[in-house]
Amino acid sequence: MMVKLHIKKGDESQFLYETTVDVATSDLIDSLVAIYNGRLKVQRICSEIEELADHGITLPPNMQGLTDEQIEELKLKDEWADKCYPSGGHIDNKDDIGRRNGIAPTEHMKEVLKKTCKEAKDMISKKKVDANDCMSQPIVVEALQILKGAVTIVYPMGLPPHDPIRAELENTEDLSGTQAALEVIEAEKASLYWAGKELERGKKLGDYIGKNEKTKIVCKLQKGKGVPAREPVVSEAEQKAMMAHWYRKQEEYKKLEENQDETNEDPSWADNTVLKKQLHGIGSKVTFPKTKF
User: Fold this and answer.
1) Please, which contacts does 88-95 make with residues 24 or more away whose CB atoms are closer than 8 Å?
2) Which tens digit of pLDDT belongs to each residue from 12-53?
3) 257/272 Cα distance (integer angstroms)
4) Are the C-beta atoms of residues 286 and 263 closer than 8 Å to each other?
């Protein structure tokens, strides 16, 4: 048995990770950061590969965003279009935002790319937490490898140097100034918290949780220092369920009140002399209220 860590960022589950009580907290934090950032990389590459499948390779930076008329007027040419041609031919599918060249792979090759993206995303999915499946660096590496393999199958001559997929696979991506850059955690700035306490570098995990290798704990990974905010007692999903239940009860109460009002319109059933009157042939037949269930 090993210690199982349920890693969260903020209130959101990320992945499960197995380790031992003897692991150095520095090594633990570095491993968790590598997995966390690796999963982000897989997601970024998949997003770009899906665009590659639909619209082909990215245009050179000086041609992106220009109309066909502007490109013709400026006498610009994509020198990589012929060099990085998809295997098996192409389908013309213009990119409306002018970022990719519109020379898309065939339907068969497109399917190769999209199926591989789904497989890679499933490998690093947050849903694995619910399935009690642990994450590791080799799994992340494998996801990256199958993505690289699919791209090589469809583009055997490779991708142009300015294509973000090539940069990601070669670890030369420049995320500065992007939303993606804000999501990445630098190892030296990362901190790990458990039960409101920071697991400080220079110690072992066992110094905090004891020697029980069967322990399962929830840890929060974040940038910088500072105790993470406490999670709400009631989750958003639970709150919605409670509101829906309250609304149904309110509707039931309204219907009961309406039924009560209808009953009060014929009060003959409440007359305590009605039985005597009927025995003497006086009065009309009593209509008793119907009970609704």
Assistant:
1) 90/56, 93/54, 93/55, 93/56, 94/55, 95/51, 95/54, 95/55, 95/56
2) 999 999 999 999 999 999 999 999 999 999 999 999 999 999
3) 24
4) no
